[in-house]
Design brief:
Blueprint: E1 3-6, E2 12-15, E3 23-28, E4 39-44, H1 59-65, H2 71-78, H3 83-103, H4 108-125, H5 131-137, H6 143-157, H7 161-170, H8 177-181
Antiparallel strand pairs: 1-2, 3-4
Helix pairs in contact: 3-4, 3-6
Length: 189
């Protein structure tokens, strides 16, 4: 990559000699992420041959790039009036899940992969392609109604400590001593 510029209309322009190489979006929020000085990286595919020169870098787009969601799954939710609020809740869940996976000794890249996968599976269960967008648009810009729906669904895409432990345990390269000792795992409430 050679250069990143901010255009007059608020878009970032990325110049690269090879548009097919992956894009790694590094964000930092030390108030929400407890590892690596608050830095975390969301991976995206590079541009495909038939793709326009624009690429959305969002959590939903990362899920599509990984194959966890289809583009059709995300069309309607990206066009709701409250999309910015929806993205806020996605980011809150992403950082919370990421911390829980890293708490279980997952590498950053593995934690992000499994975080995106987990959230996409839950969004499919919530019917992100139809039901969830219809419910949010049904609020008619009533902030309280939107917040109530998003808060309720946020708990559905947020991992429990037990889920994070089980995902980490299933994907460890090396078994830890605790993995053999723990027969039944329950987190204190």
């Amino acid at each position: 990559m050679e250069k990143i510029q901010l255009s007059e209309d608020g878009e970032y322009i990325l110049r690269t000699s090879d548009p097919s190489i992956p894009i790694l979006l590094e964000l930092q929020d030390s108030s929400k992420v407890r590892y690596d000085s608050g830095k975390f990286t969301i991976p995206f595919k590079g541009f495909e041959d038939n793709q326009t020169i624009r690429k959305e870098l969002s959590i939903l787009s990362a899920m599509v790039d990984k194959g966890f969601l289809s583009k059709n799954d995300t069309i309607k939710i990206k066009n709701i009036n409250s999309v910015e609020k929806f993205y806020k809740y996605l980011l809150l869940a992403l950082t919370d899940n990421y911390n829980k996976l890293r708490d279980n000794n997952m590498r950053a890249v593995d934690a992000m992969y499994h975080d995106l996968k987990f959230m996409a599976e839950r969004l499919i269960e919530l019917d992100i392609s139809t039901t969830l967008p219809d419910r949010l648009d049904g609020c008619n810009d009533n902030d309280k109604c939107i917040e109530n729906i998003l808060y309720k669904e946020y708990s559905g895409i947020k991992m429990t400590k037990e889920e994070a432990y089980l995902i980490a345990q299933a994907n460890r390269k090396v078994e830890l001593v605790n993995d053999g000792l723990v027969k039944s795992f329950r987190c204190p409430k």
